[in-house]
Amino acid sequence: MNTNKFRRNLAMSLCLLTCISSGISFSGCQGGEIQSSKVEQTTTASNLTQSTADEANAVDALEKLGIDAKTLGIEPNVLHDTENPVGFQLDMPDEGDTIAVVHTSMGDFTMRFFPDQAPKAVTNFINLAKENKFDNTTFHRVVNDFIVQGGHCGSDENMPNGTSSYGSDFEDEFCDKLFNIRGAVSMATTARDTNGSQFFINQTGAEQFEQNGGWSRFEEMWQTVKTQLSNYKDSNLLSAFIDKNGNNCYNTDIVPDDVRKLYEEYGGNPYLDGAYNAVDRGQTVFAQVIDGMDVIDKIANVEVDENDTPVENVVIESVEITSYSAN
Questions:
Q1: What gap in Å lies between CA 285 and CA 119, rounded to an integer?
Q2: CA-CA distance, 93 to 271, in Å (whole number)?
Q3: CA–CA distance, 135 with 206 (Å, rounded to integer)
Q4: Distance CA 219, CA 203 (A)
Q5: How far apart are the two ends of the chain, measured CA to CA in Å?
């Protein structure tokens, strides 16, 4: 097959595809010395099953198109939570659960963690907070009706997503019961398994979700992507296409009705959910804002420049790790 023709077709395809991801992570280095943390790893509960995503059938889409996922290095490991229902992340924590109160220059917000579903990401955030690494960092990327992103620690140019408490990038943790709905707190990455310190809060509401096209938008995107995957399956340009459009490979064919209803009711960004991505892309959800979404909305509405950076700094003054009490 003519390679030049493929390159022209690929360029046209990339223009036609709506690049709704536009790169979740941007480097926003803050000053500060890099130090590694002593990590006390949270263990995974026995009623949560680690698997190769057979239940979600995310990679089956590639196999049906005649693409061998393993030859592309695509072997997703999705945590299947058999204890919790869809939407449990909106519940309040149990008495005594560890939570975080984030004090910002525009007000405070509180988040609960999901240590059973995303143990490494939760441990990472808590350790960084306890070492005051988030103090005086900024929300460096703000896109109204999409996300509020910050938490860059360290100044190592080789770690564009910030320096984790482990001292290096760590792997994604996808779960079939945690979603990038409004208020979900997720890790910001630039590629697969590049989690550092940066995180973002999904801010898209239900009304905006509908205005953006709702599920029809993602279904049309998936149909377009499937066509392109099929076109490039026998080309050496397939890997390049996947690298460019990884987040757009959100397999709407397998998304359950209760997940669809969750997004319709609360809003969010479903294509970021790794459990339903055919090429093992997505963002790790590790926490949920349980109080202070009005503060997140205020931050989302600040004036930004052409790089989505606030004109006036919005600062994370400190992060308090404490225990939840209903009182």
A1: 11
A2: 26
A3: 32
A4: 22
A5: 68
CA distance 210 to 28: 31
For the chain, residues with pLDDT lower than 50 are 1-16, 18-46, 51-54, 56
Kindly state the DSSP code that residue 43 receives in the 8-state scheme: P
Question: Is there a domain that residue 139 lies in?
Answer: yes
- Is residue 256 one of the residues assigned to a domain? yes
Three-class SS of residue 316? strand
CA-wise closest residue to 284 among 276, 293, 296, 272? 272
The answer to whether position 29 is within a domain reads: no
| pLDDT of amino acid 47 | 57
Which of these, 190, 185, 81, lies nearest to 125 by C-alpha position? 185
Identify the residue whose tokens are 């995503």.
53
Judging by beta carbons within 10 Å of its beta carbon (0-12, 13-18, 19+), is residue 82 exposed, middle or buried? exposed
The amino acid occupying position 2 is N
Cα-only R_g, the chain: 19
Domain that holds residue 168: 3-16+48-90+97-323
What does the pLDDT read at residue 45? 45
CATH at residue 197: 2.40.100.10
Neighbours of 136 (CB within 10 A): 15
| 177, amino acid identity | K
Contact 53, 77 (CB under 8 A): yes
DSSP code string of 261-273? HHHHHH-B-GGG-
Sheet of 137-138, strand order: 137-138, 315-323, 98-104, 107-113, 285-291, 184-187, 199-202, 147-150, 141-143
Q: How many distinct structural domains can be found in the chain?
A: 1
Residue at 43 is within a domain: no
Strand partners, 78: 51, 174
Residue 32 pLDDT: 33
Measured distance CA(269)–CA(278) in Å, rounded: 16
